[in-house]
Amino acid sequence: MDIKAYIETGVIESYVLGMADAQEAAELLQMARKYPEVQQAIDAFEASLEQQALASAVAPHAHVKDSLFTILAPEFKKEDHKTRLVAFGWSRYVAAASVILLVASAALNVYFYSQFKSTSTAYQALLIEKNSLIADNQQMQTKALDLYNNMQMMTDPSMIKVSMQGVPGKENSLATVFWDSKSKDVYLLPNKLPQAAVGKQYQLWAIVDGKPVDAGVMDACTGLCKMKNIPAAAAFAITLEKKGGSPTPTIDQMYVLGKVG
Amino acid sequence: MEVVTKYSEPELVQLLRQRSRHVFSYLYDNYAGALLSIIRNIVTDEELANDVLQEVFVKIWKQIDSYDSSKGRLFTWMLNIARNASIDTVRSKSFQNSRQNRELTEDVHNAGGSSETKTDHIGLRKLVHNLKEEYRVLVELSYFQGYTQDEIAKMLNMPLGTVKTRLRTALIQLREIIKP
Fold this sequence. Notes:
The complex is a heterodimer of chains A (261) and B (180).
Chain A: H1 3-7, H2 11-16, H3 22-34, H4 36-55, H5 62-72, H6 80-87, H7 89-154, E1 159-166, E2 174-180, E3 186-192, E4 200-208, E5 211-217, E6 225-226, E7 235-242, E8 254-259
Antiparallel strand pairs in A: 1-2, 1-8, 2-3, 3-6, 4-5, 4-7, 7-8
Helix pairs in contact in A: 3-4, 6-7
Chain B: H1 9-17, H2 21-42, H3 46-63, H4 74-97, H5 123-128, H6 133-144, H7 149-155, H8 160-178
Helix pairs in contact in B: 2-3, 2-4, 3-4, 6-8, 7-8
């Protein structure tokens, strides 16, 4: 059989262009399997047809692809996503890096926050300590000032000092009255007196014309306790009385006694 | 970002059968324009041609399993799907419109075999216009309008043998024109 002549009959072009009938097509495929030249001629025409079509390509409307992919969306393989992920590899790394940065940043935030918390707590503690130190200091200053004032008073030349010794049975007790000879103010210094029992209070008496006159009860005070103003007195004494004091002294509860002058 | 991978035909076919969206997208990007040029040769209305193109790609997707590489290239197979879909569209439209409305394709038969053209031809059909008149008519009727050789013989009042021989000669000439 003349293969060259067969190739030139146009049956190949007719087949490739889809115009050959079933019998012609079957015959051609048989020939192609038998003769490589026939197959080569088929391949060559197919290739040039494809080249020609590609060269005269017309851009389709953009919406065609969109709607096509919308229609076929349910039919695409799921893992196809993977291919795209590989294609967008760089963005995957960026995403991974972002996540790492986020986690690192969050960890740093937690760290800094805990640091801030402990520093803040320490600061608060220091603040409280400072305030209490200031308060203590003020108290000490007040006390020092009181003591200074007391000392000034005690050393004043017009101040009469009356030392009161313990009465028989209370020999260990001692108290001192400072009596301003000008203003007649009386100050008491409890040098050595037992702790008053609950509901009891020490009371100072001025002995005027042989009679006891109430000179006030002794409250808790630093240094000198200011008592009542006594214009004149021959002696002073202290008794332990019920809280708030008594109108007359309980003699058997006398602790100290001292004469003026 | 586009992946600039080139796929060989067997790879394309295999991946399409595996239902790869990515490869289908690649196929569309690389061949839609070429297929549209052949569709536009038959369906001259631009909107309608784009509709046919969509239909053609749905067919490619659905029928990829029936593609047989021993019978030809993938592109040849797709080209034939495009041609058949286009002819079907023109025929159903022509039937609906009873040929009263705007003609959707150049009707060579009614034009009495004259060489006058109504549209700006592109691609293959443009090349067909370079053929001698007696050949051009046969290619127009058979390839672009899908008439069988029997139908053409009756239409042109020509013996079937003559139609067959002339058409074959026309295709050989066309092959030479197409050759790069």
